[in-house]
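User: Hey, quick favor. My workstation is busy. Could you predict this chain's structure for me?
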Amino acid sequence: MQVDDNIMTDKLTNFILIGGVGVGKTSLFNMLLGIEDEALKTQALVYHNEKTVDTPGEYFDSPRLYSAIIQTMSDIDTIIYVHPSNSIERKLPHGLFQIYNSKRLVGVISKIDLPDADTDAVEEIMRDFGIEGEIFKVSIYSESSIDKLREFLSKE
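Assistant: No problem, here it is.
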């Protein structure tokens, strides 16, 4: 994979990816940053250049670990919530995004290439949870969908 020369990964705003287990956060993280390594199961917080953070889905799925996400979000400008296109399960805890309401909040609907994708239903879920801004529909198999998100994250 080659990152577009016009979009430098060091120009990305600092961000954190949050979402449940298996939603595609690490694959998205790698694509955004031009990391060609295979996405492995994230076991702990993963920092890249001290300004981007990938989180284990267990931190999101287990209420006793919310404090780790909340503390990590404190130093981040952009919170990216990732939800798979083929799940209408509502796992997002109400009020999580209101803790830091000054942060830029972005939604990402992942795995849009799946045959059972329902992006409209997932977008409605995201709106219900307070994501009022941009929602990106992405597939790691579509570089153009990733490029749109990367461009957005490159804006100051």
